[in-house]
Amino acid sequence: MADKTHQTPKHLTGEQVKDIDENIAWAKINADVLRSMENPRRGYWVAMFISVTLFAIMIYAEIFQYMFGMGPAGLNTSHMWDLYISTFVFWIGMSHSGTLLSAILHIVHADWRKPIYRFAEAMTTFSLMTAGIFPIIHLGRVWNFYWVMPYMSDRGLWPNFRSPLIWDAFAISTYLTSSILFLYIGMIPDLAICRDNAQGWRKTLYSWLSLGWRGDDAQWRSFRVTYLLIACFLIPLAVSVHSIVSMDFAMSIMPGWHVTTFPPYFVAGALYSGCAAIITLFILLRYFFAFEHFMTFPILDKVCKLTFVIAMVWTYLNLVEFASVWYGHDIPSKEVLLAKANGPYSPFFWAMMFFGSVLPFFLLSKWIRRNMVVLFFVSVFLNVGMWLERWMIVTPTLSLGYHPQGFNVMWPGWVEWAIVGGSFGWFGMLFLIFVKVFPSVSMYEVKEMVFHRKRIVYEHVDEVMNMHAGVPGPEPRTTPTPQNTGGS
Amino acid sequence: MVDHHKKRIVKTKRLLGLFGDFDAAFEVIADIRRYRVPGLTVDDVTLKSPIEHPEIEDVLGERPSNIPKFAFWGGLFGLVFGFLFLASAQANFLAQPSGGKPIITIPSNIVLAYEMMILFGVLATLMGFIIGAKLMRKSEGLYDTAITVDQIGIVIEVAEEQEHPLKALFAKHHVIEVHEETLI
Q: Pick from A286, A324, A342: which is nearest to A41 by CA?
């Protein structure tokens, strides 16, 4: 048994200590990533089948709702929002992962993000595209969705710019546009690699999308400045987007929603669910595309620790919110809080508390961080907790508002569940198509990571060798180091 | 008609030298800086690489970028335009009574103008990138797919008398391959 473990490469057993093997040849990086776009493992097709099936069920449910109205979904006074808006908030939250991993860690020069930021950025874009569906679906009259756009109607009326719902439309469309551009610009050098290696329709597609990228020094300089500037735009934008989503609730006077800590609480929750989703997709992509060389255990460790830290911030803000209500002596808000803990929704509330605040401690176990199957389920249940959190914000308040005649317990109908489940299919389908058509690991950034790390190691080794040989300082290199050939 | 009295260098060829790593390519550029090839300066050099080298400015010198200006002016335009757009829409108060509240609502307009600032800032940055990086233009030729794998290319336009000294310089620094094309 022990012999067998020793024969297995370190990147498969979890004994690897470096984020990446800096001796990996640059040509192999290209070859591995390009191969992933051609021949995924069978699990990829299984995931695609599940996603398409869920999406088809969603389409059926939406057509049913379109034909028969909002009743089959279970929506009625006073429950006008329920799962649709809860799930909208959940998907907006998921979108924050790309910004965190890509923009924030880029600015602080955390280079371990490089092999995994591309799919996190894609996740941002597709989460937003999924989130955008829900406000439209919950309207009922879906054909009137464009009323939210800032234009003057034929009666000379504009949308109410004082409403946070209009702020949502502005913020989400800006975030979607910016995150698509951020994803696309970061991908241009990789699209040039694809162009140079593709044939047929792929060659045409990549030639168009790479915009004539040739790797000139002027192009790289412009690229660096542009990427940094858009990252700087994106970080405050992401914070503002989820703050605005929280204001959909906090600007109202409903008990349990009118809380000043909602914006930071929502942003922390967004980062939390985004990080948990990164772990889930990390494990799936590592398996689907045999990315063990790029998506390594040490990088997974860092993502898990980051998730744990954010989980603790979220827990703290959650407790602050409870304390604010408890000590605020606003009776209706207090009743909603107590009803969450011991009312009809209490099993979901306590499940949320367990998945959101207790389960993250499992991430501290190295055994769990090395066990892909267990970690996969932990990450999924973290997000179940985050989804429950959004449900527990929306529904208990609506079931216990200010008007006693509006007190009622509402359970979602099959249409609502089907549309919520189908949204995961829609997201999964978009994401799986993306990773098949575009490189899900940034080839040029992995090369940069390897280049810098190898250079630092070599210079350090030179220094130590010189010290041992009695040479005062590092000597200038006269022969080129084989930095991009894997040391061969 | 050729002017025989004027001494000016007519570039006749474009050369692309491919190197195995940055060090070799940087040494070629350092020699060009030392005027080892008469008439060639570092401003004539275009470096093509699979990644961006962090010390490239030490070798090629500062080449400033206008993209931050695009970002600034784009963001400023978005902020001002966003606010004016909202204010002009709200000024239509005869059709849309505000019920005693301010006609132009500063706090909510700040939120929306902020979003517009970011949107236009990002769009202007993208425009600056396309212009600054000379993207979406007709290709200037001389390219090798090895550049997107692991090799570093140096592209220089040369006059007839500079061709051989430059090729010798390339050879001195272990060039892997040289491509050339005639300009005139």
A: A286
